[in-house]
Amino acid sequence: xxxxxxxxxxxxxLKNVIEAVKSGxxxxxxxxxxxxxxxxxxxxxxKYGVATSNGTVALHLALKALGIGKGxxxxxxxxxxxxxxxxxxxxNAKPVFIDSHPEYWCINPDKIEEKITxxxxxxxxxxxxxxxxxMDLIMEIAEDHNLYVIEDAAEAHGAEYxxxxxxxxxxxxxxxxYGNKIITTGEGxxxxxxxxxxxxxxxxxRDHGMNPNRRYWYDEIGFNYRMTNxxxxxxxxxxxxxxxxxxxxxxxxxxxAEELKELEEKRIIxxxxxxxxxxxxxxxxxILIEDKAEISRDELMKKLEEKGIETRxxxxxxxxxxxxxxxxxxxxSEELARxxxxxxxxxxxxxxxxxxxxxxxxxxYLNYE
Length: 369
Ligand SMILES: Cc1ncc(COP(=O)(O)O)c(C=O)c1O
Description:
This protein is α/β, with parallel strands linked by helices. Helices cover 37% and strands 14% of the residues.
């Protein structure tokens, strides 16, 4: 089976893990944690990094640190992984869903203002499948309405908006290092910020809320959201390869785009977009199967699976899920979810695997051999 994504781990990850094990520091203290936090923050152009046990809790921690709570509303895209919306719900706040931009699939900034109420406290733009959101427009809306911005950059390590790294825009930005992400620590996440006070608040909340000046004194209810030194040991090694992984992802995207552009011209499919202001990292190279195709998206996925090619359907929009369904219709995201497909995008892929096998098989089923 050619997987949609798989980790790319090597000798250096192993060496660091062995070092951590030999040192005995295998829990959430140890030299690799701070090193990973500092280096990843610097990579993204931020001052402080707070490593967490996964990306979901990174979002929860960020919301908590900003004081989001009961009765508050937080603007999120409807087309995202469920964790973005759930993190808001964990705070007893309400996620308010925004439709996708028809061209680049992330949150549509033009649809945000109509959903802002006196209860709105924050916006969480998600850089979906590696494509950055239009951050200028989002930051402008946030400023006009005095809202916090938390970037969900779980799927977009190394992506850029107008030459600046994603994760460097909001009050806090959150990353995931799950096994299928561009760099991984197995499970893992991180919050980044330039605000020292917020960083300190997140460190305290990550460690049960313990007062840093008084052991076993807790001013509020916190969490155990710490990353282990073992995870960070892998992260430090992975981070060295991030630029190389990003280039490989972009190379894979070129292979797909080059071979499939003819199908796009015929409006059989739509290729993964990259706006002129964006450097997309194509976490998962994605296409839309248009209605003109002779095979449905789901049928195509089944056929590809039979041929040993793993694919994934797009996320189901949040406003359609039972816990969030209020009967709202957000047509662009619904259409994207119906048509969208993630193709094999692992950095381990070879050119001939993509061109001679994945693309050839895809073309055959789309009747364009
Ligand atoms: C957009 C987005 N946000 C948050 C998460 C949650 O991260 P984790 O799986 O590390 O909890 C993920 C992915 O897993 C994601 O894709």
